[in-house]
Amino acid sequence: MKYRRLTKEQFEELHQEFINFLATQSITNDEWTNLKANKPELAETELDVFSDLIWEGVLNQAEYLEHFAPQHMYLFRLGEDKMHAIVVNVTKDGVDITTQEGYDWLRENLLDESVEFLQADKEYTDDKNADKFKMIEQGAVITKGELYHYFNKLIN
């Protein structure tokens, strides 16, 4: 397995897609029920293969990631050859931008001396999707890039 198995909730959301996946494997509903009962390791393999296919599709389409920490905001544009990162650091004591109060403080004090902006490009390893997945596993979420674009305009 290249990524990780989808959660039960994710499988429930993708129920129809999983049925279609089994159909492409020529596995009927009765055969799937039999597989789960009599060859659970083979059923587990099918779940893993399906999970990897879904992750590949999601990661191929992901264009932006965001990751918030108490004093840092990491905004990534996932380009074809490299990712571009914008980092917002808050050095003011007592401000936690993962809370509404801290985030509101940041919005109102973007030009404060305790707010700094950094940006950098980072090359992918040989497996671009594995790089993206690792960031998601570390807490990043896929977004449409609104914050990235806002801060990119602000600092460039």
UniProtKB/TrEMBL annotation:
Q: Which InterPro entries match?
A: DUF6495
Q: Which superkingdom heads the taxonomic lineage of this protein's source? A: Bacteria
Pfam families the UniProt entry points to: DUF6495
- Output this protein's name: Histidyl-tRNA synthetase
